[in-house]
């Protein structure tokens, strides 16, 4: 078997977290008497970390570094309360992980979501599947920086070429390329197949079971 490990993005790849993320940010915006946004709009805010999402959601007239920092802290506080209320695995994901575990494929999560929240969601929704779940600990390590992905490969004692990197965004595909891993896009997330392919996806899958065929 050529591929011995898989690194998954979280939001838009393993779980549909759009509603919880959007609801938390809208609570903050309502508290400030700012305009809120639809789920469809938030779909394009997700992918570069919650701080970036906060900046995009705030009005242009209230987007200073201080505004972003205060609103970010408030958003994380609200999101921590509700991050697994509406968030659920996509269809076929649990079955896929069961299959991969049975084949002794190494599995990890690498997200631009805050590290604390990444670990919380991964452990609550996918207990015992992933030996590593890492989120954003500093802006310098945000995807598409491949540092964390490469660190996972070293921990596994695998070459990057032996690892699939699976995600739903252009940032995930860029991360895979930067880490010298095989980039696989998923069409059920927050970006289009065209965006994924133009960002370097070597394959785009339409359902979870297709990942087994790649292996």
Short description:
The chain is α/β, with parallel strands linked by helices. The protein is 45% helix and 16% strand. The strands form 2 sheets. It has a 6-stranded parallel β-sheet with strand order 5-4-1-6-7-8, with helices on both faces. A two-stranded antiparallel sheet has the order 2-3.
Please characterize this protein's 3D structure.
With 215 residues, the chain is an alpha/beta fold. The protein has 2 domains: 5-16 and 88-214, Rossmann fold (3-Layer(aba) Sandwich); 18-82, Orthogonal Bundle (DNA polymerase, domain 1), CATH 1.10.150. It is 45% helix and 16% strand. The chain contains 10 helices and 8 strands. The chain has helices spanning 18-31, 39-42, 50-57, 65-82, 93-102, 115-125, 147-156, 170-179, 193-198, 210-214, and strands spanning 5-8, 15-16, 88-89, 106-114, 132-136, 163-167, 182-186, 203-205. The strands form 2 sheets. The protein has a 6-stranded parallel β-sheet, sandwiched between helices. Strand 4 (106-114), helix 6 (115-125) and strand 5 form a beta-alpha-beta unit. Helix 1 crosses helix 4 (65-82) and helix 3 (50-57) packs across helix 4 (65-82). It starts with a strand and ends with a helix. The mean pLDDT is 95.
